[in-house]
Specification:
It comes from Populus euphratica. The protein is of the alpha+beta class and 176 residues long. It is 40% helix and 13% strand. It is built from nine helices and five strands; from the N terminus they run αααααααβββββαα. Strand 4 and strand 5 form a beta hairpin.
């Protein structure tokens, strides 16, 4: 079975056509329907697949329509002569902005834009009194500090913030 599979990938092993004989443009059309990880895995099969996987038309389809806006976060010399595949790879890594309080990246499978906002990147509304919250440095957070509520349940606190809002805010901020 292994010998016949290698004949398929190399082509013309026993005189018949193989995967290597498929035109690169046809392979590129098929790649339009695959996810980026699938494209990268198939690019290892042979030269035709590798060439199609490097095609800008394939990767243009995987980038979001606003990817140029994401590139403005970076200095132009970091992506000046990049192919679309290289731009996708660059944008798939977290890009910090807003003094490092926010990060944006592309999901490697779907190509959708993801964003992470640190607690310092958010504004705290409703509680301006610093007795109720503080910044705590931590190595476990991606942003190296977390917001911690010092909540004292009194009747006035309970009426000013609903418990659903507090739980939602707590979970969001502790994920940072």
């Amino acid at each position: 079975m292994g010998a016949s599979l290698s004949n398929l990938t190399e082509g013309a092993g026993m005189g018949g056509p193989g995967l290597g004989d498929i035109p690169e443009s046809c392979v590129a059309c098929v790649f339009m329907y695959l996810t980026p990880p699938e494209i990268c895995n198939l690019a290892r099969l042979n030269r035709a697949f590798r060439g199609a996987a490097s095609s800008d038309s394939v990767w243009e389809n995987k980038l979001p329509s606003n990817y140029q806006d994401l590139l403005h976060i970076l200095p132009p010399d970091r992506y000046l002569n990049f192919s679309k595949k290289d731009i996708f790879a660059l944008l798939s890594r977290p890009l910090p902005f807003d003094d490092g309080n926010k990060e944006v990246w592309l999901d490697r499978v779907t190509g959708r834009v993801c964003m992470s906002i640190s607690a310092k990147g958010m504004s705290i509304t409703g509680i301006e009194d610093r007795r109720y919250w503080t910044w705590v440095p931590t190595e476990e957070s991606r942003f190296l500090s977390n917001l911690v509520y010092l909540f004292i349940l009194t009747s006035s606190t309970r009426t000013s913030l609903s418990s659903a809002t507090f739980i939602h805010a707590s979970i969001w901020l502790l994920i940072n």
